[in-house]
Amino acid sequence: MFKLLNILAFLSLFSFWGVSHAQNNKLNFLEVATWSLIQLVPSPAFYQDKDNSNSRLQFGLKWNFTPVNYSFNANKLITPLQFFKVNPMRRYGGSVELFVQPEWTTSAYKYSDIERFSISPGVRSYIPFIEYGEYLSGSFGLKYSVRKDRQNIFNNTLGVELGVYTFYGIVGLNFTYNFTNDSKYNFSLNLKYY
Q1: Which residue among 52, 56, 90, 149 is least packed, with the fewest CB closer than 10 Å?
Q2: Is residue 33 part of a domain?
Q3: Is 98 helix (H, G, I), strand (E, B) or coil?
Q4: Residue 144: which domain range?
């Protein structure tokens, strides 16, 4: 738990620094501080925990940080790149981004031989479906989950992610398939606040 709090604090401070330095200089301190703190609110998730004979779902939390986003729908008079604080219209209207996703399960894996905490860097692309993504959009991503097993040896895995989002991208469902035998899938109610 202490490791998770340290990583979230680091990502939040890094995000706060990145937003205040990489975006428009007219952003005031209160806006940047509020936005950075809101990013610490997690999305609820469920993770598969299985071995050769048993399987169960367990509850967890997932955060999402976006260091870089490139929008295909940006006005030609402004840069298509955004750092850390990404405008929802530019994200769900069609974009590609790099992300970092800390994940933590609220209880230990009973059947899988893995630790509760993982961090997953990756790349994700958004595609608008209805009203430039405001009403409905989807995403496809690849991520690499870094996690240790109970013997403190890295048990990393590649994963594929699919998502659908609505209500200006604030609410979504996200499904991840991991190429491992320990925890093949997880899904979450993706909550992103702006």
Answers
A1: 52
A2: no
A3: strand
A4: 43-191
* Buried b or exposed e, range 94-110, using 16+ CB within 10 angstroms: bbbbebbbbbbbeeebe
- CA 101 – CA 93 distance, rounded (Å): 22
Residue found by looking up tokens 């609410």 in the block? 171
pLDDT in tens, the chain (194 residues): 555 555 555 555 555 555 445 445 555 777 777 777 887 889 999 998 887 788 888 999 999 888 898 988 777 778 888 888 887 788 888 899 999 999 998 888 887 888 889 899 999 999 999 888 788 999 999 999 898 887 888 888 899 999 999 988 788 999 999 888 777 888 999 877 66
* Residue 176 burial (CB count, 10 A): 25
Please count the structural domains in the chain.
1
3-state class (DSSP) for residue 150: coil
CATH number for position 121: 2.40.160
Amino acid at 17: W
What letter does residue 80 receive in the DSSP assignment?
A: S
**Does 12 map to a domain?**
no
